[in-house]
Amino acid sequence: MSFGDHTSKQIIVSKGDDLRGRKIVLCITGSVAAVRSPEIARELMRRGAEVFAVMTPLAQKIIHPYVMEWATGNPVVTELTGQIEHVTYAGEHPDRADLILVAPCTANTIGKAAAAIDDTPVTTTLTTAIGSGIPIMIAPAMHGSMYKHPIVIENIKKLQSIGVEILTPRVEEEKAKIPETMDIVEDVVRKLTAKRDLEGRRILVTAGPTREYIDAFRFISNPSSGKMGVAVAEEALRRGAEVTFIYGPGTVAPPSGADVVNVETTEEMLDATVKALKEKKHNAAILTAAASDFGPVKRDIVKTPSSVGKWTLALKSLPKVVEQVKRADPETFLVGFKAEYNVSDEELVERARRRLKEAGMDLIVANDVSREDIGFGTEKDEVFIVDSGKNIVHVPTTSKRDIAERLMTIISERLGKK
Predict the structure, then answer these.
(1) Whole-number pLDDT of residue 2
(2) What's residue 377's pLDDT?
């Protein structure tokens, strides 16, 4: 620092230099979660970033602009003036921002951004950034019923379809709360420091559960949310790969930028996978989906009356998607996932290696879903990544995004050697 610099900037790079030299515009909207914005700014600075705040009028009623000026050490944009601040930060020129982060973001601002309505400094900055191709990340924060509103969901999907990254909120106490500060910071670091080591590669990812219908509308399924597959696909996209995403009925939005194929049953997933592998060359197939192993021998397209008292089902084994990949393209690098329940680490690895050899996989990712805090439907997991030799990579409990990053690094290295 030199004399005259704001003393708040003394914290820059105090926790690392991942974001050194990066300029981040932190947009703040009128959610009570705006009280978290100073902390977010400070943590981004500690990783090396220069942060500039832009606030809506309602955000200024929750925290004063002076707080953000103190937090960032920079003047705060509270209105657009002859300085054309939105162009300075987000226009098409060499000195523009590296990233626009909206944290928190209300349903109101999401809707306006999706419709290109510019009536606040934040929405005008977003429209400018979208037009000039600057990466944008949005951290929604609102009441749970608002987050579930079909038009809000549609607006989020519309933004995702043009490349805006929507961070998954913490759904607690009937509210869609802004993610934890360090989760946001890690997402920003990942966004701005992603390797481009998969450019020119095409990756197929299966994700989510499948459903096997037992009558007209009842079905057998499992608790898979699709979060792991979405994380893997997003990581592949960040690294420059083209992604074919074959998605069962998961509960999270598919990744923007991928070629998404929606399926419902195991046979539909199998057919879509084989078709994709035969139509285009895929360098790797990563099968994260929890495809059903069993389905009914017979399905009657009726509503089975609840008055029957007793209902006996006969089930049959379903085809394994993983066993068809090498038949469709023997050169595809094949990665499978295997979930076990309440087994030792040694048994988990042994079963995984046995399954890897049976299906001709190149890698397998094994996890134990008996713990409530990891596995199906959660944000975290603990896995073992096993190959056909003696290599075992243990990834202790961490976010599924971290696991995806670790896995894609291994896959990229293996593809580079092929």
Answers:
(1) 52
(2) 81
The two tokens of residue 390 are 């003696």
Residue 24: which residues within 8 A CB-CB, separation 6 or more?
Answer: 44, 49, 50, 51, 52, 97, 98, 99, 100, 101, 188
171 has which bridge partners? Answer: 176
180: nearest Cα among 164, 193, 191, 167: 167
Give how far the C-alpha of residue 92 lies from the chain's centroid of Cα atoms, to the nearest Å: 28
List, edge to edge, every strand of the sheet that includes 175-177. Answer: 142-143, 175-177, 170-172
Strands (E), 39-132: 50-55, 99-105
The residue whose two tokens read 């996978």 is 273
Which is more confident, 283 or 195? 283
Give the C-alpha separation, 236 to 226, whole Å. 15
Categorise residue 342: left if φ over 0, alpha if ψ from -120 to 50, beta otherwise. left
pTM (predicted TM-score): 0.68
Which domains are present in the chain? 12-193 (3.40.50.1950), 202-301+311-417 (3.40.50.10300)
Whether the per-residue pLDDT at 60 is higher than 70: the answer is: yes
d(CA 362, CA 162): 34
Average pLDDT, the chain: 92
Q: 159 vs 253, which has greater pLDDT?
A: 159
- Which of 195, 185, 193 has the alpha carbon at shortest distance from 47? 185
Length of the chain: 418
User: Does residue 269 contact residue 318 with C-beta atoms inside 8 Å?
Assistant: no
